[in-house]
Amino acid sequence: MAVDVKPDPATLGENPLIEGLERLPVPATTLTIFGATGDLAHRKLLPALYNLAHEGALPERFNLIGISRREMPDDEFREVARNAIKQYSRREPDATVLEGLLSRVRYVGFDFADVESYKKLKTLIEELDEDGGGKLNRDFYLSTAPEFFPVIVKALKDADLNYDPDVDVRCIIEKPFGVDLESARELQSVVEHVFRESQVYRIDHYLGKETVQNVMAFRFANFMFEPVWNRNYIENIQITAAEDIGIGTRAGYYDQAGALRDLVQNHMLQLLTLVCMEPPASFEADKVRDEKVKVLHAITPPTPEEVRQCTVRAQYTAGDEGGEDVGGYLEEEGVPDDSRTETYAAIKLEVHNWRWAGVPIYLRTGKRLTRKVTEIAVQLKPVPHLAFQSQGSVGVQPNQLVLTMQPNEGVSLSLGAKIPGSSMRIRPVNMEFLYGSAFMSQSPEAYERLIMDAMRGEATLFTRNDEVLAQWAIIDPILKAWDADKGKLHTYESGSAGPTAADELIAPHKWRGL
Ligand SMILES: NC(=O)C1=CN([C@@H]2O[C@H](COP(=O)(O)OP(=O)(O)OC[C@H]3O[C@@H](n4cnc5c(N)ncnc54)[C@H](OP(=O)(O)O)[C@@H]3O)[C@@H](O)[C@H]2O)C=CC1
Ligand SMILES: O=C1O[C@H](COP(=O)(O)O)[C@@H](O)[C@H](O)[C@H]1O
């Protein structure tokens, strides 16, 4: 049974999100991207800026400064940006919009550690600000390896770029914010020495995804689910972030990070907080963050013994990716032969509060799994009494609610329904809402929403310091126990659903099929 939600004719063909963004004016802005020639800038940030320009959402007076190590004239960087946008934009670029955007682009090449060069940057920013008039925005986007975050932040202060009474200065910091609890605290102490918390925008791009925000809409804009959203009705929750691709060319970063730091510490714990938080009083940044932090604080960091029982880590071996034979993780370029970095992690957690006590929450993520899927599956308890059993009914399953973030964005609820015929036989059917058909428009990329929000000073979809530290407090003991325990690194074949040890972790429950 597919229940097709018909689009509201009033919004047909329009994108409600962008419509909302356009209406809010953004002051003249100079956005500086540190790491402008990197993978993230190339694949996500520059295309996102193009799409914002295309939607008419960028401020009229918008300037972009790209910074990275290599020297090149403005025009050469414009060509780099043009190619990146053509290759990765979600829509075919319009030549007029693209050239209009590129005409506002400048480039400065210097080593991030070279403090003298920040003076050059300051001169350029002040020059660009001159035609700004009125209120000004100055946003610094740190899209480079995390080791440079403190270096850049300190240099911005030394160059007096962190504060100006006539300008809203903001610092957007990519993930990961630190590599463990201690380094996150150290980074925070540098950041808070230079910026006020209200100036800092820590990115977790999952929060920018429409479907992730829809978790809150689904829970708090509908009356019917909240009464069952607790330990009395919910058996377990499974959060999956599976990828079919391997690590590609990112060995330098990934081999240091592993799946736990790369996805669990940030994106997956954020999904968990959205599923488990109490309804916030309003969608105002700190109200939402306060509720999320309470959830994180209610998760007791595991002891070494609990880590042994409640976590599984594994590495992919040779197998299949998209129908092609591929080598294992240890054969990837740049990965040391003896690397023990996990490309798969599964964890069982519990939120120790009145609502969730006793409900296991399973998280799993991995590279080179069967397919790409990000979803939250809420498994309800079985009905207390099955009236049809004596009449030979088959296939009665507990209800399952699945919020899919990607690829088929939407919500699906499994229900037991009578199979047509004379006997009372039941089988599960799905009631589905799909974003694509309901709103008939393509969702904006997460980075479009986040860049726009940062420029507007809207912090709800960014993580606060105490949130990031609470996330690390859960992950840190696992990292330490895994480091100390040299024995248990499982393997799984590329293209498979993951290691069999993960099935033992979730027993007596079962993972949803990939
Ligand atoms: N790539 C992705 O899919 C994702 C990345 N992220 C995060 O985004 C950030 C950037 O990642 P990514 O783009 O992949 O990294 P890359 O390694 O691809 O890019 C790094 C950038 O930093 C520049 N750079 C490096 N060292 C210096 C230096 N000493 N001085 C000046 N410039 C320097 C590089 O310039 P040059 O080319 O001149 O060396 C390049 O522009 C990281 O924090 C990552 O965790 C988050 C989510 C996804
Ligand atoms: O942050 C990261 O996310 C991507 C997955 O993002 P998605 O939007 O495609 O789900 C992951 O591939 C990468 O390793 C990680 O750094």
Automatic annotation (TrEMBL):
The keyword Disulfide bond does not apply. InterPro entries: G6P_DH, G6P_DH_AS, G6P_DH_C, G6P_DH_NAD-bd, NAD(P)-bd_dom_sf. GO terms for biological process: glucose metabolic process; pentose-phosphate shunt, oxidative branch. Catalyzes the oxidation of glucose 6-phosphate to 6-phosphogluconolactone. The active site is at H267 (proton acceptor). It comes from Solirubrobacter pauli. GO terms for cellular component: cytosol. Residues 216-510 form the Glucose-6-phosphate dehydrogenase C-terminal domain. Residues 33-214 form the Glucose-6-phosphate dehydrogenase NAD-binding domain. Transmembrane segments: none annotated. The gene is zwf. This is Glucose-6-phosphate 1-dehydrogenase.
